[in-house]
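Board work, copied verbatim: Putative zinc-finger domain-containing protein
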Amino acid sequence: MSDECFRWRTALHEWLDGTADAELAALVRAHWRTCPDCQRLAAEWQTVAELLAEMLPAPAPSAFERRWRQRRQAIAASSVSWHGIAAAWAMTLIGLISLTVWFGWSLTGVMRNLSHWWRLAEGVPTLPAELFRNLWNWLTRWV
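↓ predict structure ↓
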């Protein structure tokens, strides 16, 4: 490639993209017709541009977009309002409170026994040998 080709390289790129004005396009075209190196370079650039155009994502088919919009509308129409969710949570809370009262548990009893549960959790053996020894002691206690 000659020095003149290097000077025309940016202009050649503009000409291939179609962004060059009429005067510049005429000058580039005149150089391009006489220079085999620039012809080869332009062919390479056009090949790259075509390959890149093929790699661009294709637009979605209209049938797909129509089905997608229908599904979104169906989901939006069938969504539960916050009133329904609030009612469900209220019923769940009422049910849990009823179960607590029904079985005679009170939150004060749970809080009173919480320290006991904590001490039990701290005393749980972590090694298999300790676990086996505690299990054996518990089983032999009933014999």
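The helical segments are 3-17, 22-34, 36-55, 62-78, 82-102, 107-122, 128-141.
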